[in-house]
Amino acid sequence: MTDSKAYEIDQLRLYFGEPFSIKIPSINPDIPYKEMIIYQPTIGDIINFGEKRLYSAVNVFVANSTMYRLQLWELGLDWNELSDFEVFSMLVTSLSIEDTKLLFGDIDFSKFVPMGKRMPDSEETEFILYNQEQDIEINKDIYGILCNYIRTMFNIFPKREFAKGKATKKALIWEDRQKLERDKDKTYSSSLLPMISSCLNHPGFKYKKNELREVGIVEFMDSVQRLQIYESTTALLRGMYSGFMDTSKIDKEQFNFMREIKLTH
Predict the structure, then answer these.
(1) Read out DSSP for 196-227?
(2) pTM
(3) pLDDT tens digits for 201-219?
């Protein structure tokens, strides 16, 4: 079993774009472990690679069963009964090495196959994904580590929505079908462009357009949130000093623009 605590996310290293390494036990007795490295793209990397293509791959790694409940339901599967790892195992082999190279280098996720692995000193087996060609195993624990890291890197924590009772489930599926029908003619719209444009036109943003290409996605998203915090803090302080706002019931932390940025879980 992988020690998840050994892979707790170092927020400072993440901010500075340091690669994240996960050591995976090797089936080959001559090799103690294999290494899975997750790289952080810069804004320039994303522009060159393609924003839509990158986020399509990212969605596979951050997905939970709720995100794909309509597709699962139409396959005769109940999303309430599937783990995120099971959903991941169904999706990940559709990704080519070209789709994931920006994040994972030469790891080929299309080569992973589901299999049962006998657990040490036990008659029980665990469900894993195994890439025989590259001798890389992904079990539930390894998946949990890489999923959490990718979610944190991109600050994408999808909402979970479970349902009890057949009628409730059918109602949610109906809503999903209606949304799919409404959105079928929509073209892809960049999620990064509005943020980039807003920041570049904000007097407090320190990067010029060409410099922004070298900024990691975590640093950029942090800058977006920090500017919002700074503006809201400044507005509160102006209201307090003007005498037109009662700030006695406002949390004092809201007046500190250097406060910790909370991730959206």
Answers:
(1) HHHHHTSTT----HHHHTTSBHHHHHHHHHHH
(2) 0.86
(3) 999 898 999 999 999 999 9
